[in-house]
Write a structure and sequence with these properties.
Elements: H1 2-30, H2 33-36, H3 39-62, H4 69-74, H5 81-86, H6 92-113, H7 119-143, H8 167-196, H9 201-232, H10 243-268, H11 272-295, H12 308-332, H13 347-379, H14 387-410, H15 418-443, H16 447-465, H17 469-494, H18 499-520, H19 529-537, H20 541-566, E1 568-574, E2 579-582, E3 585-596, E4 601-611, E5 614-619, E6 622-626, E7 631-635, E8 637-639, E9 644-653, E10 659-667, H21 669-687
Antiparallel strand pairs: 1-10, 2-3, 3-4, 4-5, 4-6, 6-7, 8-9, 9-10
Helix pairs in contact: 1-3, 1-7, 3-6, 6-7, 6-8, 7-8, 7-12, 8-9, 8-10, 8-11, 8-12, 9-10, 9-21, 10-11, 10-13, 11-12, 13-14, 14-18, 15-16, 15-17, 15-18, 17-18, 18-20, 20-21
Length: 712
Amino acid sequence: MLIELGHFALILALMVALVQTILPLWGAWRGRPVLMAVAEPAAVVQFALIAFAFGVLTWAFVTSDFSVALVVSNSHTLKPMLYKISGTWGNHEGSLLLWTLILALFGASAAWFGGALPARLRARVIAVQGSVGVAFLAFMLFTSNPFLRMEMPPMDGRDLNPLLQDPGLAFHPPFLYLGYVGLSMSFSFAIAALIGGRVDAAWARWVRPWTLAAWVFLTIGIALGSWWAYYELGWGGFWFWDPVENASFMPWLLAAALLHSAIVVEKRESLKSWTILLAILAFGFSLIGTFIVRSGVITSVHSFASDPERGIFILMILGFFTGGGLTLFAARAGAMQARGVFGLVSRESALVANNILLAVGAFVVFIGTMWPLFAELLLGRVMSVGEPFFNAAFTPFFVALALILPLGAMLAWKRGDPGRVLGLLAPAALAALAVGLLSVAITQGQGMIALLVLVGAGLGLALLWARVPQLIRRRVPLIVLGMAVLALIWAVQTGRSALGPIGVMLGAWVVFGSLADLWSRSGREGTPLAGRLGRLRHLPRAEWGKAIAHAGMGVVVFSVSAMLAWKVEVIAVVAPGDSFALGPYSVQLADVRAERGPNYISTMAEMVVRRGGAQVVTLYPEKRSYPVQGMPTTEAGIDYGWLRDIYLVIGDPQENGGWAVRAYIEPFANWLWAGCALMALGGLFSLSDRRYRVAPAGAKSARPRGKEVPAE
C-alpha cells in the first residue's frame, strides 16, 4: 500500500506542478496578486509530495522490498546499509526521482527565501521552475516509473552495480544533481526576466547566489567523481574525458562564466544579453548531460540507461526549454541594452575575456564529446575522440585563462592602470618562477640547485618588497619570459612536454596572484602591518571567497600539471616474493590470498614498499568479484602523501605463476582535491556574504519597462 501511495504522490505532484506553472504566469500577465500568490504554496506542496515519494522508495530499498521491480534490479539482502540507501539513486528511475526532488527543492527555496523579490518576478521564477517540474514528472511517470510492482517477488535481488558500491559514488550523484538542477534557477530567472523585459543590477544580484550555489555543488560533485575514479577504477588517473565526465564539466564551465558575467551586470549594467544567454545555455547543457547519461547513444561506464525512447523524451524536453528560451531571447534581445561603457584595459574587459575562454572551452568539449555520434549519423563512420584531442584542444584556453586571472581580478572597473597592477603582481610572478625552477630542480635530482633557487627567490622578493619602482614595473615581462625559457630548456633537455613546468608556474602564478590581490586591498603603501591585518579581517566575505576560489583553481592547475609531467608508471609481471623498481622505491609482492567480503570475493595482494632498504608502507590492493552481478572491480592500494601517492594495482594471474601488476608514483595527487575543496570553500564564503541577503536598493519598487501588461 505504501508503494502505491508513493506513486499516487507523484501523480498529485504533476497536477500541482501544472497549477504552479499556469496560474502564477497568468496572474503576472494580468496583474492579479491572488493568482500570483498561488506560486509559493504550490511550490512547497509539490516538494512535499515528491519528498514523500522519495522517502517511500528509500524505505523500500532499506527494507529490501522485493515486490518493487526497481529494488529487485538494484539491491540485495547482503548489501551493506549505505549501499542499500544509495541504491535508491544508483539507477535510472531512482536517480530521476532524486533529480525531480532537487528541482522541487529549489522551487520551494525560491518561495521560502524569495521574499525580497518583486511579486511578479517571484511568481514568474517559481512558475518557470514548475514548468520544468512538469516535464520531468511526466517523463518519470510515463517512461520511468520507480514504483512498478513484481507479479512474483523473488527471494532476493540482483544487487547494485559493483562500481557504485563505494562511499565516493554514494555521495557523488546527490551533489552533482544539486549542481545540475541548481542551474534551473538561473534559467528560471533568465526566462522570467525575458518575459518581464527587465534585466538590471538588482536582477543580477538575485541570480548570482543561486548560480553560485549550483557551481559550488557541481564543484564538489565533480571532485567526488574524480576522486572515485582515481582510487576505484585502478587505471591511475583522475580524469579520462569520458562523455559523462564531460557532461558535468560543460555546465561547470558555463556556470563559472555566468557567475563572472553577472558581476558585470550588477556592477556596470553591461553584458546583459550575454548573461541571459549563458543562463539559458548552462541549464541547456545540464539537459544535454541528462541526455548523454540516460539515452544510451554514447557508451560510458557511468551511463544509467540505454533506452532510445527515453532519449527521445529527453530530447523533447531539451528542445522545448532550450529552444524556447533561445527563441524568447531572440525576441526580447532588443530590450536588454547595455548602459555601462569601459576601456580596453579594465576589469570588464578581463571578465569578457574570461567568459569567452570558458564558453569556447565548453563548446570544444561539447564537440569532442558529441563528434562520434555526429560522425556515425552523418558520415557513417565509427570514431572515437580520446584524451589527446581534449588535451590539445582544451589546454590552450585554460592556459590563457590562468594567465589573465590575477591581472583581471586586480584591474579597476571602467579603466584600469596596467602598470600599477603589474607592479603589485611582480612578487607573485617572481614567486611563480621560483616554484617552477624548484620543481624542475627537484624532479631532476638537483638538490643544490633547488637550494640556490630558494635563496635567489628570497633575495628577489626582498628587493621587490623594498618598492624600487623601476624594478617593480619592468621586471614582470622579464619574469614571464624567464618562465617560457625555463620551460623550453627543460623540454629540450628531458625530451618531455614543456606543459609540465609551464603548468606548475601558472598554478603558482594564480595562487600568489590571489594572495597579492588580497594584500592590495589591505591598504596603500606605507600602511602599518597591524592596520593591513585589521582591514583584511573586515574585508567582505565575497572578496575572501573570490581569493580562496581563485587560489583553489591555481592549486588544481599546479597538481594536474605535476601529475601529467612527472608521473612514474611501471607495468610488470611479478611472482610472490619478487621485487621490482618504482622510481626511488622497491616494491615486493609478498603474498596473494583470497578474502571474502559481505557480498564479494576478493583476491588480495600484500605488497611491501621500501626505500633504501627501509620499509615505507605495506599496501593491500584487491581485485573483487561480485557473484550476484558476475562483475569484477579493482581496489587500488594507495599510500597517500602530500608530495606523492604510491599507487599499486593487482591484475590477473599469468601462466608462469606470476601476477600482472601496475604501479604508479602520482606527484601532488592530493593537491588536486584540496584545490577543488578550496574552490568550493571560496564559493561558500561568498554565499555567506550578507550582501546576498539584502535586497538591492529600489528592488521592490522597481517596475518593469516596456509594454508588458495593460494593468501597468
